[in-house]
Each structure stands twice: as C-alpha cells, then as structure tokens.
Amino acid sequence: MSRRGVIALALVAMGHAAPVAPAPAQVRPAPPAGPVSQRLIPLQGGRNFRDLGGYRTADGRQVRWGLLYRSGSMHGLTAADFAELRRRGIRTVCDLRDSRERGAEPVAWPALAPRVLSDDYALDMADWLPAGPMRGWTAEAARAAMTASYPRLLDQFRGQYRRMFAELLAGHAPLAFNCSAGKDRTGVAAALLLTALGVPRETVIADYLLTNRYLDAATLAAAPASAGWSQLPPGVLTAMTAADRRYIEAALAVLDRHPGGATGWLHEAMGLSDADLTRLRLLYLE
User: Fold this and answer.
1) What CATH code is assigned to 3-16+39-284?
2) Are 285 and 63 in contact (CB under 8 A)?
3) Which of 143, 164, 256, 276 makes a 20 to 30 Å CA pair with 171?
4) Distance, C-alpha 164 to centroid of its chain
5) What H or E segment, with its residue span, contains residue 28?
6) CA 85 to chain centre
7) Do 5 and 227 contact (CB within 8 A), yes or no?
8) What pLDDT, in 10s, does the model give residues 40-77?
9) Whole-model pTM?
10) What spatial distance separates the first Cα and last Cα of the chain, rounded to whole Å?
C-alpha cells in the first residue's frame, strides 16, 4: 500500500445580515426516541449520526434535544432517512469534508433538502502521518501523529467552525455538521460547541468517545478511499480510526492555554462575544 493510499484512507478516518431570529415556530424538533442514553439516530444509511441533546451544563441546564446533530458522511442515506431528517426539521448541514471526499461519497439530496454548506479545499495529511516507511509504523507512532493533528484542526477549520457558530446564532437550526467518519473534524466541532454551551469537560470528552460505540471500523473499511487498510501494521488502523481521549484533549489543551482559557479562545478564534455565548445558551439550552 502506497503512502498516498494511506493519506487517502486517513482522510476518511479524519472524518473534515438580517436580524438574528430563532428557528421558525413551525419547525418543531422531534423528541428523542427511546432512552436518553440512545443518542444514535436510527437511520438505514447513517454513519455515526447522533443527537447532542440532553447533556447537562455546569449551571444545571441541559442541551435541547432535536436541534444539534453530529454525523459522519451522509452519502448512504436512503429515501426513508431523508424523510426522517425532514421530520426532524433539519434546516442546515455543515459538511466539513474536502472536495475529494465529497466527490467520492456524494449525497443525493432530494428536492426538499436542507441548506448544505461546504468548502472546496484539499485536506493534505502528508505531514501528519508517522515518519518513515509504513512497514515500520507502530500503533504508538500512529497515536502520536493523530494526537499532534488535532490542534492543527483548530486552525485549518477555523473558518468552517466559525460559520457553524454563525448559523447557530442566526437560529438556522435544527443543524447537523459532519465529516467523513464523524470523529475528528466533527469531534472537534462538537467539543467546541458543547464547550461554548457550558457543558463540563468530562462530558465533552465522553461525547467524543461515543464514536467508539457507534462507528464500526468495518464501515470505514468499505469506504471508496479505504482499499488496502488490511495492509497496515497491527494496531495502526485502530489508532487511526479510534476516538482516543488523548486526541481531543490535545485540541482542548489549546483552549486551556489561551489567555482567558476556553472562553478567551472562543472570543478570539471563533469571534464569539459574551453576548453571543449568552444567545447560544438561550437558543440551545433549557
């Protein structure tokens, strides 16, 4: 398997002004089905599609159900799945995937589709992979490379994360955001959003780790860009596709080191004022 091939499959593992008003009254988000612990939305062709509702904040409120969704690629959604998204009133989708990923796994949105926001770009991971020949890679080296990549996501996807927050501030919800696996780019986006809403750190990390329950590595292995994964050294594939708390902690550490901590980082990097954070909590907490 060539290094270029590993870069391609790593892309899959990486998952990538009018007055402000809340969502129209006629859009009534569907309540969660089943127990609160069942976050996965039951879609026939979904990939790691989950609701962020129900998480408790530090001040005792909780994230509203049926407004904020995170997901992997939606290319496998069926007609019944699209009908379910319509039933849930999803208005906006922030697709973080790059041009190649969207071309390899296009989403056949029906006529009544949400507004889809995406950027044409190429995610270059050549400098993010372990050094040296692939046959010499170890799981430890792969984990170290993945850990080092997460702080870079904060910079590379700053514009797309800011746009997600802008859509939410404008009340363009229910909103879903996704990459390919729904783990890395999406995981960072979810961590930033939950942090902005005041969800405690351990809960933020727990949400990130749920990918290990809801994303089957076999699903990624069947993706168009993933041919040859079986040729990777033992443990390397797992290190690249698993949600490891060290990965998300590396991104969150950037926020912690910023003057003013996470709030200071959200102010500067995401352009969110104190009034914006208050509005986000008004709209998406109860």
Assistant:
1) 3.90.190.10
2) yes
3) 256
4) 11
5) none
6) 17
7) yes
8) 999 999 999 999 999 999 999 999 999 999 999 999 99
9) 0.87
10) 50
